[in-house]
Amino acid sequence: FSEYDVFCEITGRKEPNDSGWGRGNRPVIYVSWWDAIAYCNWLSEKEKLPKAYDTNGNLLDKEGRVTTDPSKVVGYRLPTEAEWEYAARGGNSSNGYKYAGGDDLDIVAWYRSNSERKTRQVGTRRPNELFLYDMSGNVYEWCSDWYSEEYFSKGQMINPYNSTPSSCRVNRGGSWPNDEPNLLVFYRHHDSPTAVYNFLGFRICRTVYEDY
After folding, report:
1. What is the pTM of this model?
2. Within 13 Å and on the Cβ side, how many CA atoms surround 205?
3. Which of 36, 94, 107, 116 could crosslink 202 through cysteines, CB 3.0-4.6 Å?
4. CB 144 within 8 A of CB 164
5. 98 and 88 in contact (C-beta within 8 Å)?
6. 205: phi then psi, degrees, rounded to nearest 5
7. What is the bridge-based pairing of β-strands 200-201 and 140-146?
8. Burial class (CB within 10 angstroms; exposed 0-12, middle 13-18, buried 19+) of 9
């Protein structure tokens, strides 16, 4: 919330509701997919990076041209669904856990049994192998992709990104009111890009370029 509230203050946007649970270091909620990419573009411009999205939600390369290749995007963006799952599983350091960070959900996640029916401060459960927190539980997280049932058929592709419009965008990770099945690293969820809920937020990423 603290980071998103700065964005709202500077741009004049209305701050999202916090359900009375508090702001600060809790995950921002009541944000649509459109709100999430607006934050990404604002942060990119603030740091003098090319924007990642156009007004229609298409990804942009460093020249501002529409692209379907996430590796060509320089600015801040939402992870692709494949990137999200790869990160949640622990990347190349994966130990094959059922949830992000382990097989004991009470240690790695805020969910129905321990959340006290609300979001909790981020980074207070055990991280996964990549030292990422809350990829299982707390709030679902928006991804860049449009939702498609064909995701599982792309298993051999490198970072598949679904740019074909449908009625919903992907979100992943499960959330504070959910039971165990929804928090599995492979569990998929989706909502209209205009949807806002008190169990749905986002995390951002950037493509990293290294000179060798």
Report:
1. 0.95
2. 19
3. 36
4. no
5. no
6. -150, 170
7. parallel
8. exposed
